[in-house]
Amino acid sequence: MSVNEQILLKSYPKGMPTREDFEYKTVPIPSLEEGEVLVRTIYLSVDPYMRGRMSSAKSYVAPFSLNEVIEGGIVGEVVESKSERYQAGDKVTGMLGWQRYNAVNEKLIRKVDDRIAPLSTYLSVLGLTGLTAYFGLLDIGKPKDGETVVVSGAAGAVGMVVGQIAKIKGARVVGIAGSKEKNKYLEEELGFDASINYKEVDNIRRALKEACPNGIDVYFDNVGGAISDAAISLLNDHARVPVCGAISAYNITSLQEDLGPRVQSALVKTRALMKGFIVSDYSSQFKEAAADLGKWLVEGKLTYKETITEGFENIPNAFLGLFKGQNIGKQLVKVSE
Ligand code: NAP
């Protein structure tokens, strides 16, 4: 072990990112300062929100700097330690660089226990993904027994957890996803009451109306665009719309491409609540929420799926695949054993 491999952001993508926006670099493994540990990357998370950081536009999180290592969620193993809190062999997670080895201050990571749950789950159902679903749905969506919950991006990392929590709360759940295989998974394995393949239906509004004969009480929005226009037009009185993401708009090059019906009339008529959120808003409550998610997993009320791409060199491909719908459940990259 003497060299480190890294992936840097070479350019801010225009429209859909390509492999040319990323650069591979080989550098020496860094030596440690007092209070630091060296973490060998095992699993690495690629996430749609990272597209927003590949732009100089102002947002809730700073842009990635050009020619710097990209940063994201990682679980790994401590291989060397100059910290009293950690020793070699500890498994940890944190926001670290897209590289095989990270020298990181002890304050920027936390331990995870692979005897409680597989390591990958700390980046999926028990990590920020599961927490996003939990807080968006329960704090903003507040589904009640018998209500209809619609979730877009339903077979993705956040969406599949949203639908399952809505079922736990007694709701009727309809998922929108982009392939037959995904729809089958939602209905047959996760127990969704209905699902729609938005890539195959002629008219998404008509399909949603048929799937939701009692209208929509909660629309959990992961995608924005025409799918959300249709859902918003079918809201019931006092519906709730947690706005989690808008992946359909992440690669547009002009705002003109994302014009839809204005929402004000629909919101006034239904007195619906539409509210954006960022999972980190809830960081003070993460512990309790993770305990709930863990409990539902153990009880078999919650299950999860991960699409695991093998190999450090394939990290950009796994990221790009998110915009083509290549993943079912959480997209991760396995970098080492
Ligand atoms: P994900 O759903 O696992 O992966 C992205 C999925 O989006 C793809 O598999 C694809 O599935 C779908 N998609 C891609 N392009 C689309 C388009 N043009 N129209 C409709 N669907 C499209 O990703 P995730 O991590 O769970 O994230 C889901 C959403 O939540 C994203 O918008 C993300 O930015 C957001 N998010 C927000 C927070 C927060 O704190 N607010 C935290 C995490 C994630 P199909 O095959 O169905 O098209």
How would you summarize the topology of this molecule?
Blueprint: E1 3-9, E2 22-28, E3 36-45, H1 50-53, E4 71-81, E5 91-97, E6 101-105, E7 109-111, H2 128-141, E8 148-152, H3 157-168, E9 172-177, H4 180-189, E10 194-197, H5 204-211, E11 216-220, H6 225-232, E12 235-243, H7 264-270, E13 273-276, H8 286-298, E14 306-310, H9 315-321, E15 330-334
Parallel strand pairs: 8-9, 8-11, 9-10, 11-12, 12-13, 14-15
Antiparallel strand pairs: 1-2, 3-4, 3-6, 3-15, 4-5, 5-7
Helix pairs in contact: 2-3, 2-8
Bound molecules: NADP nicotinamide-adenine-dinucleotide phosphate (NAP).
NADP nicotinamide-adenine-dinucleotide phosphate is lined by residues 47-49, 129, 132, 153, 155-159, 177-179, 182, 222-223, 225, 244-248, 277-279, 322-323, 325, 327, 331.
What is the CA-based Rg, rounded? 20 Å
CA(first)-CA(last) distance: 15 Å
Order of helices and strands: EEEHEEEEHEHEHEHEHEHEHEHE
Amount of helix: 10-25%
Low-confidence stretches: none
Structure description:
With 337 residues, the protein is an alpha/beta fold. 25% of the residues lie in helices and 28% in strands. The chain is built from nine helices and 15 strands. The strands form three sheets. Strands 3, 4, 5, 6, 7, 14 and 15 form a seven-stranded mixed β-sheet that branches. The longest helix has 14 residues. It is globular, with a radius of gyration of 20 Å. Bound molecules: NADP nicotinamide-adenine-dinucleotide phosphate. The site of NADP nicotinamide-adenine-dinucleotide phosphate has 31 residues, from helix 2 and helix 3.
